[in-house]
C-alpha cells in the first residue's frame, strides 16, 4: 500500500471509530423482580419504548425482569454500586437501605382508596420521601401503583385469627413483620423470587400480595385459599443511581424525565385493571378458592390490624402518619 493510501485508510478508520464512539448509546440497565405481564413489567416496557424513541437511540434501556439479574436485596446494592442504573423496588423494600419512612405505605388500612394514595404519592409527602433517598446516592423519579393485597394460605381465611400460627412470607419491612405478628402469625422475610418454591415445599404456609403478583408467579397453584382482605397496599418507587443521573447530558435527562412521567401515568392507569384481570384468572383456574370477607369480617380485620399504625409510630414518624391520615380526611374519611 502506498504511503498516501495508508494514511488515508488510517484517517478513515479514525473518523469511523470516532463516529462510532460518539454514537455509542447510553445504556440504562433496569432490573426488577416481577413478571413482564404485571403493572410494573408493562410500565417498564413502556418507559423503554418512550425513552429510546425520544432520545433517538442515544439511550438504550435494557430490561431485566423476573429477578433474572438480581434478587430483592442484591438489586438495591447493585444500584448503589452502579452495576444497574434503574430499579422499581416495592415501597416495602427501602427499610434495609435506612429509609424507614417508606414503610408508611405498608401500614394496614392506611389508604382507604386510591385517590388518597395519589394525593400522597403525587403531593408534598411523596416529594419529601423521594428527597430522603438522595443522601443514599439515589434519585426517585416516580411512584408506580400496583394494588391492594390479598392473603393466601392452604387453610381457609375468613377472620384474622385464622392465620394464627401460620408461617407467612413477607417483604423486608418491619411494618409487615408487625402486621403479621398482630395476627398471631410467624412472618418470614424471603426474596420475591423464592416465594413460589417456599410455598410449594411448605417452607412457608402463606403470603400476601396483590392478585397480579400472585397470578403471574403461579402462587395460586400452590395455595388453596385466597382472601380479598385488601388490608394493605403495594406500590413502587422508580429510582436511579444519582451519579449516573446527574452525569447525563441535560437534554437527555429532560427527555428521560418526560418519558418517565408518561410511563408513570400508564402504570397508574393499568394497575387496577391488571389486578382485576389476574383475580378473574385465579378464580377461573379453579386452583384456589377466592373469598370475599363480609362487612362484619372486614371490621374484624381492621380491628386486629389498625393498632399497628400506633405501634409503628416511633419507626416511621408520628407526623408522617398523621399527614397521610390528613390526606384521607381531606377526602372525607375519618
Ligand atoms: C414482593 O416482593 O412481594 C413484591 O414486592 C414484588 C414486587 O416487586 O411487586
Automatic annotation (TrEMBL):
Sorted alphabetically, the Gene Ontology BP terms of this entry are:
C4-dicarboxylate transport; transmembrane transport
Indicate the family of this protein: Belongs to the bacterial solute-binding protein 7 family.
Organism this protein belongs to = Undibacterium parvum
Protein name, per record: DctP family TRAP transporter solute-binding subunit
What Pfam families does the record point to? DctP
State whether keyword Transport applies. yes
Q: Which UniProt keywords apply?
A: Signal, Transport
Name the GO cellular-component terms. Answer: outer membrane-bounded periplasmic space
Task: Report which superkingdom the organism of origin falls in.
Answer: Bacteria
For this protein, the record's CDD domains field holds: PBP2_TRAP_SBP_like_1
Question: What range does the record give for the signal peptide?
Answer: 1-22
The record, for InterPro entries, names:
DctP_fam, TRAP_DctP, TRAP_DctP_sf
Amino acid at each position: 500500500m502506498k504511503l498516501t493510501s495508508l494514511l488515508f485508510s488510517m484517517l478513515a478508520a479514525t473518523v469511523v471509530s470516532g463516529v462510532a464512539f460518539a454514537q455509542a448509546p447510553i445504556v440504562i440497565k433496569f432490573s426488577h423482580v416481577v413478571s413482564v405481564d404485571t403493572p410494573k413489567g408493562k410500565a417498564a416496557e413502556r418507559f423503554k419504548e418512550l425513552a429510546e424513541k425520544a432520545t433517538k437511540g442515544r439511550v438504550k434501556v435494557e430490561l431485566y425482569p423476573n429477578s433474572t439479574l438480581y434478587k430483592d436485596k442484591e438489586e438495591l446494592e447493585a444500584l448503589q454500586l452502579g452495576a444497574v442504573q434503574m430499579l422499581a423496588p416495592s415501597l416495602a423494600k427501602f427499610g434495609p437501605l435506612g429509609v424507614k419512612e417508606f414503610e408508611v405505605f405498608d401500614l394496614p388500612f392506611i389508604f382507604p382508596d386510591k385517590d388518597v394514595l395519589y394525593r400522597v404519592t403525587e403531593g408534598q409527602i411523596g416529594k419529601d420521601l423521594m428527597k430522603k433517598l438522595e443522601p443514599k446516592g439515589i434519585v426517585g423519579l416516580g411512584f408506580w401503583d400496583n394494588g391492594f393485597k390479598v392473603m393466601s394460605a392452604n387453610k381457609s381465611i375468613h377472620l384474622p385469627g385464622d392465620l394464627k400460627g401460620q408461617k407467612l412470607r413477607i417483604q423486608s419491612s418491619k411494618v409487615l413483620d408487625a402486621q403479621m405478628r398482630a395476627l398471631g402469625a410467624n412472618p418470614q422475610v424471603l426474596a420475591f423470587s423464592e416465594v413460589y418454591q417456599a410455598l410449594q415445599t411448605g417452607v412457608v404456609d402463606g403470603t400476601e400480595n396483590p392478585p397480579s403478583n400472585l397470578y403471574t408467579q403461579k402462587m395460586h397453584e400452590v395455595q388453596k385459599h385466597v382472601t380479598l382482605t385488601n388490608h394493605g397496599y403495594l406500590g413502587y418507587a422508580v429510582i436511579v443511581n444519582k451519579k449516573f443521573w446527574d452525569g447525563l447530558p441535560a437534554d437527555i435527562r429532560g427527555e428521560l424525565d418526560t418519558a418517565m412521567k408518561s410511563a408513570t401515568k400508564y402504570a397508574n392507569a393499568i394497575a387496577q385493571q391488571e389486578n382485576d384481570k389476574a383475580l378473574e384468572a385465579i378464580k377461573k383456574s379453579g386452583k384456589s378458592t377466592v373469598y370475599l370477607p363480609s362487612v362484619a369480617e372486614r371490621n374484624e380485620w381492621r380491628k386486629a390490624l389498625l393498632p399497628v399504625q400506633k405501634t409503628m409510630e416511633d419507626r416511621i414518624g408520628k407526623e408522617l402518619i398523621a399527614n397521610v391520615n390528613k390526606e384521607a380526611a381531606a377526602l372525607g374519611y375519618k
